[in-house]
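Good morning C.,

I know you're traveling, so I'll keep this short. The sequence:
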Amino acid sequence: MSVRIFPGRVHNGKIVPDGGVPLEEGTTVTVIADSAEESFSLSKEQEAELLDAIESVDRGEVISAGDLLNRLKT
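The tokens, ready to paste straight into the viewer:
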């Protein structure tokens, strides 16, 4: 199993990936929706760590979901 992260929008009640990201019929997805009603706060250190992680993903520095699960088990 591999994991991809990409933005999308709701259009006519359906989630549509931005940039034409192809998804096979029946693909399982997890949705984290932006909400103006809910928010969270980060310390400066946590924000820096989050931004570093996002930049790593943008550079393609990712691992498979299987590898992640194996790392979490140890």
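Safe travels,
E.
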